[in-house]
Amino acid sequence: MKSILTIERLAWGGKGVARAEDGRVILVSAPLALFPGEQVEAEVRWKPRHGEGEVTRWVRRDPRRAQAGCPVAATCGGCELWEAGRETAELKRSMVADLLGRQLPDAPEWRWLEAPADARRHRIQLHWTGRDLGYHRRNSHALVPVSACPAASPALSQAIPRFLDALEGRMLPTRPQRWELATGTPAGEVYATDEQGRTWNLEPDGWKPFQGGIVHRLGEARLAHRPGGFFQVCPPWAWRAFGEILDGWELPAGTLYDLYGGVGFFTALLGARVAGSVLVEFDEPAVAWAARNVPGARCVAADAAEWVPEGLGAPGDLLLLDPPRTGLAPEMCAKLQTAGAGDLVLVGCDGAAFCRDVKRLEPAWKLEGLAVADLFPLTSHVECVGWFRRA
């Protein structure tokens, strides 16, 4: 059923909040940014207690709306905030404010870190059908062919045509699959990794098999990881943002327990401020890279929720947790209730899961500081960081 709706405000995830004539809430999704006050036509599907709508056209547009800097912005499923223009940061901040105000009304005043204009992705995932190369359409597995990506670093975007030429010329595996294109820091060398973990490096005369790691030089640190392995999407901006956030809090200088530590990003960031570091990560290849990246740390290959013992740490120690997008497992939250460490930092890339985990950490832990950073430009995603002390 199509309805004409007025967007009242923005909720978490970039959805517009509208109301039916009878007052029931309708959550509205769109391929481009939504502004409060805009009027849209939407195809509405009713649930038992609310409606969900997909915008089919704009009836009244906000005058601040800007032309998208991407030719496939209206169809590509990668970025949903094109056309927000100069208002992008404020729209994202309002989404976060809505979430935190509803889920954590008693939280301390939170800090917002806006993404710099030059923040670009250092890794992208492209899909090859055997004929076309591109991103998935919004809410679909159909393909949107692309020859460039303005959300990616120039090095990656400019490599896409050469990558497509290599696929079409059968110089790379041609079976349909997902590929990851990535670059290091500073952005320069480009690497293509297939679903089997095989990697090629783009050289002047074409793509060559590659066996090494992707290197990121961040401040005084040098971090490397295997191609296709997890790392920050915008590494230079992430290093700066997390550094600013953690510098603003009175964190202890004892032992750092870096749980879900990956290849050592946070251990390297905090290494000079703590007496020692223990990094725990489930992915064994990542642990091997961490051992090279932060040689002074004790690196353990284990599931963090299983490894954490009762009473972990001493009052002068710091627990730092950067779990997967789904957040902390209930058993991890239960173990943290007995931890001996005096401080805890929780990082979360899904705001809803982060808020849930903040509540789960009570009553043993009190939220002392809260910051939110836009580490995923042009999308509705953010990174939440909370600082806790023993209650």
Automatic annotation (TrEMBL):
InterPro entries in the record: NA-bd_OB-fold (IPR012340), SAM-dependent_MTases_sf (IPR029063), TRAM_dom (IPR002792), U5_MeTrfase_fam (IPR010280)
Record protein name field: 23S rRNA (Uracil(1939)-C(5))-methyltransferase RlmD
Entry annotation: catalytic residues: C349 (nucleophile)
Gene: rlmD
Any GO BP annotation: rRNA base methylation
Entry keyword 4Fe-4S: no
GO MF entries: rRNA (uridine-C5-)-methyltransferase activity
Domain TRAM per the UniProt entry, residue ranges: 1-57
Keyword Transferase set for record: yes
Species assigned in the record: Mesoterricola silvestris
CDD domains: AdoMet_MTases
Residues bound to S-adenosyl-L-methionine: Q232, Y260, E281, D322
Keywords, comma-separated and alphabetical: Methyltransferase, S-adenosyl-L-methionine, Transferase
Domain of life: Bacteria
Entry similarity comment: Belongs to the class I-like SAM-binding methyltransferase superfamily. RNA M5U methyltransferase family.
